[in-house]
Amino acid sequence: MRMTTLHLKGMHCTSCEGLLTDILSDYGATQIHADFKKNLVSFQGKVPLDKVKAEIAKEGYQVLKVEA
């Protein structure tokens, strides 16, 4: 399965990493790796990207780019 990477704006701590991991887990993503220093979160799985991006935006983060 392919890795998807989200480039974000607004991550600043490990709590941010945990929150984003929880959001992606709720949508069935696996192999989630969040890195606040790089403002990235990578995951595997077929997730509804529009819904995930909306959920992430509700939490105050901005998705700048999606690499799939």
Q: Structurally, how many domains make up the residues?
A: 1
Please provide the count of β strands: 4
Number of helices: 2
- Termini separation comes to 11 Å
Largest sheet: 4 strands, antiparallel
Could you characterize the architecture of this molecule?
The mean pLDDT is 96. This protein has one domain (3-67): Alpha-Beta Plaits (2-Layer Sandwich). Helices cover 34% and strands 35% of the residues. The protein contains two helices and four strands; from the N terminus they run E-H-E-E-H-E. It starts with a strand and ends with a strand. The protein is of the alpha+beta class.
Question: What can be said about this structure in brief?
Answer:
The chain is an alpha+beta fold. 34% of the residues lie in helices and 35% in strands. Strand 2 and strand 3 (40-44) form a beta hairpin.
Task: Show the helix and strand layout.
Elements: E1 3-9, H1 14-26, E2 30-35, E3 40-44, H2 49-58, E4 62-67
Antiparallel strand pairs: 1-3, 1-4, 2-3
Descriptive keywords:
single chain, 68 residues, alpha+beta, Alpha-Beta Plaits, globular
